[in-house]
Structure formats: C-alpha cells, structure tokens
Predict the 3D structure of the following.
Amino acid sequence: MGRTFSFFNQKGGVGKTTSVINVATVIAGLGKKVLLIDLDSQGNATSGVGIEKNENESTAYQLLVENTDPKASIKKTAIENLWIIPSNAHLAGAEMHLINQEKREFILKEQLKKVSNDYDYIFLDCPPSLGLISINALTSSGYIIIPLQCEYYALEGLGQLLNTYQLVKKNLSQDLELGGVILTMADVRTNLTQQVIEEVRNYFKEKAFQSVIPRSVKLSEAPSFGKPAVIYDPHNRGSVAYMELGKEFLVRFGSDEDRRIFSATEKTVAPEVIQGAQSAEATPAAEPAQTTQANS
Ligand SMILES: Nc1ncnc2c1ncn2[C@@H]1O[C@H](COP(=O)(O)OP(=O)(O)OP(=O)(O)O)[C@@H](O)[C@H]1O
Ligand SMILES: [Mg+2]
C-alpha cells in the first residue's frame, strides 16, 4: 500500500492522466517496476501507453466487479518495466454493481494485495469523480497525488477534494497521506500562473512538487501516437519537466539509495534513459520524425 499512489482530483481535465502516464514512464525508465491501473472508463491512460481499448479483454472492470484474479488483467506495455491494467467503456457501469457488494470500499485494496509485491510502484489513474471507484483507489493507496491546473479556478473544488481525502482517512484508511501536489499546464509568462503557483505553495508548502509542468503542445499530442510524451518527444519542456518530477518523486518516496542518486546529480534525467526504456515494438509506423526543442 505504501507504494501505491492515487492521482486524484474530481475536477476533469486537470492533467491526472498525462501526469500519471509520464511519471510512471520516467520511473520505469529509471529501473523501477511499475504497474499503472486505469480506473477511468475513458481509458485515456490505456491508449496513452499504446494499449488498444479492446472490448473483450480483461480490464479494471473484471477486477472490480467480477473479482477475477488481477494477474489476468495485467498487460505488458512496450515500455520496459511498465505494466498496465487497462480500462474501457465498460467501467462506466461498474459503480452501479459495486454499490451492492460487501466491503465495497475495499475491493481494489483486497485485489491489489495479490500483486503488490511484484512491483516497486503502483499508480492509479482516477476518474474525475468522487464515486466508489475513486474511493476504492484511495483506500488502496498509501498516498494521494493531486494534479492542479494553474488557472484562476485552480483552488475551486479543492475544499471538496480535501474533505473527501480527510473523510477517507478518518473512516476508511488511516494510513492515507497527501503525497504531493503537481502544478500542471503552467504558462509561466503570465502573472496569473505565478499567482496560482504562489498560492498553492503557500497552502501546501513542501507538499507541492518543485517541478512545475508547463503547457506543451507535445504533451497533448503524444497520446494520439500511443506514447507517453517523455518517449514521444523527450526534449520538449513538458517532457523535461516530467523527467524532473519523476526524479523528485523518487527522492520523496524512494529508498535511501534513490535519494542519494537522484537528489544530487545532473539537472535532468537524460532523455536516453527514457528512450532506452522503450522496446522496438513501441514505435508506431506513423510516427513523425522527432524534433528536438520543438514547440513546447
Ligand atoms: N501540460 C500540458 N500542456 C498542454 N496540454 C495538456 C497538458 N497536460 C494535459 N494536457 C491536455 O489536457 C487535456 C486534459 O489532460 P488529462 O487528460 O491529463 O487530464 P485528466 O485530469 O486526466 O482529465 P479527466 O478528468 O478527463 O480524466 C488532455 O487533452 C491533455 O492532452
Ligand atoms: Mg484522465
């Protein structure tokens, strides 16, 4: 549980999936075994790492609703050290089934016990809601990671989010901790973004990660190539920021050795590390030539 992280914000479109995919890939690239679980019926994390949303396959739905062995749903991605439990539109009906189940808030937690020793990190991509699936994610996790979009309304809805976190912690899972806040889609040239960053840092103090993720076209177009941006275009500012974040993540949550290695060394994770994590089959035929320092 200590190594399981819910990327959670009930607000839609704040960068949960983009963050979880890229952080998971960076950490896998740095040699950790990572399991990503797509808990959103949109299946964006699934397609974002190049796995097809196949209607007939065993997915997070089977895991939650049919209580099938999680190992039956785990798929290897083309990225070394990264596995995924995919999702598809079926998951939209899961909440209805979960309501009638016994210990409905802990189904995922029980299921993950069967596989958690096989991975260094488990990352959960939560849906934009406060429903039972999100509650299952939170009770399975040691930490909640909150992506926050740098916009005027960034802090709106945060009260509700933190309230949910406190309720889950008090009533269902005392071990749950706030692991960190990721500032996403920052346009650092604007005063507004600077104000939001300042406000969030004042509020969350050291819980806010130092690496701020800028707005980047490359981050938003990578999913259409079925690749995390850190592989699709490792040199753009968005990818570099996620590489920094991945390192920061290991400094915060990793072993003493990780802390020693990743807190001191060079400024960025070498893009080669991430590219090295990619096996040959990850390259779709239609991929355009990579541009370095392109639009970011
Ligand atoms: N730093 C960024 N720069 C530009 N576009 C971004 C950035 N981060 C995310 N996006 C884009 O913004 C949209 C929302 O991002 P994402 O899907 O990661 O958010 P989400 O919180 O998972 O959304 P949902 O709540 O729908 O699951 C996507 O189209 C994504 O490609
Ligand atoms: Mg998402």
About this structure: Residues 132 and 164 are 12 Å apart (CA to CA).
